[in-house]
Write a structure and sequence with these properties.
The structure holds two protein chains of two kinds.
Chain A lengths: L7 H19 L19 E2 L7 E2 L9 E6 L4 H16 L3 E7 L3 H11 L6 E4 L3 H5 L7 E5 L5 E6 L4 H18 L1
Chain B lengths: L1 H15 L11 H11 L18 H15 L4 H12 L14 H27 L2 H4 L3 H11 L9
The chains are: A alpha/beta, B mainly alpha.
Chain lengths: 179, 157
């Protein structure tokens, strides 16, 4: 055994591999970086959920910082974030709009009636075309849009108080100040 | 009038594949292009499947989107650009060669080169070493002989 040092090579290689895999474990493969952040909010013109005769379009929402929350009555994790959205709506600090994604109109209205409606208005995207334009791949998703209509933040998955208090509200306040 | 007919055709076309089942377009050439492109695109829901293989609702929607865009005369690269702008490079099954993906592309080759170098180095050192280095010591030889039954040892009956 003239070269005892080389015995450590496999262990060192294993340690490096373990470190990489360890970091990999903490990453969420479902959370993809959105290329939309920093770009203009994609346009759509959709009927409102509660008033089929009226349309809603991102262009009409310019001039304010707002949250666009993609939800659906069939989405079980939307239930989990709903109370937090209700609480946020209660503070009246941030305008919240909804995008009812691939839903039935009656089911969507009934769901909001049952669980409370935090939205100023919800766009009704029955076919999910607007969803594709916004890069939606899993509901719920939430976008923060500034007064110039630029997407500033995207959250995939249910909102938590930590995300709302820690990320969304501070950013929204800053955008409102500079916007 | 021509515009109206075109609109009508578009509406009818969208109705034609509004259903859940994978629709077979009237135009087999278009369908072949859609399938070919869909094999290059990743399903965002079931991340290890292509759009072509996946039957997730979003994959079907995206395939319909691809079909509509190709049918309206857009090229394959325009469709890919459209999807990358919305879903990022992740939607591509083959990641593009960029600064951020360099390690991904050359990493395996680099690893192979390092391994080959190490192997060659090891072999050459073995060949250069004097025979004495490789000879087993007397105790090990005695035990090996004992195990093989060539010579009486304390292990043998």
């Amino acid at each position: 055994m003239k070269n005892r040092r080389s015995l450590w090579i496999p262990l060192a290689a294993f340690a490096v591999l373990a470190a990489f895999l360890g970091v990999g474990l903490t990453l969420n493969p479902r959370e993809l970086p959105s290329p939309l952040v920093g770009k203009a909010a994609p346009s759509f013109t959709l009927p409102q959920l509660h008033a089929a005769g009226q349309v809603i379009a991102p262009e009409g929402l310019r001039g304010q910082v707002y949250l666009l929350n993609v939800w659906a009555s069939w989405c079980s994790s939307c239930r989990a974030e709903h109370e937090h959205l209700m609480a946020l709506a209660g503070t009246r600090e941030l305008a919240i709009y909804g995008l009812d994604y691939k839903d039935e109109r009656d089911a969507g209205i009934a769901w909001l009636h049952r669980n409370g409606n935090p939205y100023i208005a919800s766009a009704f995207d029955a076919e999910g075309r607007a969803g594709i334009d916004w890069g939606v791949y899993g509901v719920p998703e939430t976008f923060l849009v500034d007064a110039q209509g630029v997407v500033r933040y995207k959250h995939v998955g249910p909102l938590t108080p930590a995300v709302i208090e820690g990320r969304i509200l501070p950013l929204a306040r800053e955008l409102a100040r500079h916007g | 009038m021509a515009r109206f007919i075109a609109m009508l055709l578009l509406v009818l076309a969208s109705l034609a594949h509004a259903g859940e089942a994978q629709p077979v377009a009237a135009d087999p050439v278009l369908e072949a292009r859609v399938s070919k492109l869909a094999q290059e695109l990743r399903c965002l829901v079931c991340q290890n499947q292509t759009l072509e293989d996946s039957h997730a609702p979003l994959a079907i929607d995206l395939k319909n989107q691809v079909r509509d865009m190709l049918a309206s005369g857009r090229s394959e690269s325009e469709v890919v650009e459209y999807l990358v702008a919305r879903y990022g490079d992740f939607v591509l099954y083959r990641p593009p060669l960029k600064a951020t993906t360099m390690l991904l592309w050359i990493g395996p080759l680099l690893l192979l080169a390092i391994s080959l170098f190490a192997l060659l180095h090891h072999i050459r050192r073995g060949a250069d070493a004097p025979a004495g280095d490789r000879a087993i010591d007397a105790e090990a030889a005695r035990r090996a002989d004992a195990l093989l039954g060539l010579a009486p040892g304390k292990d043998s009956p």
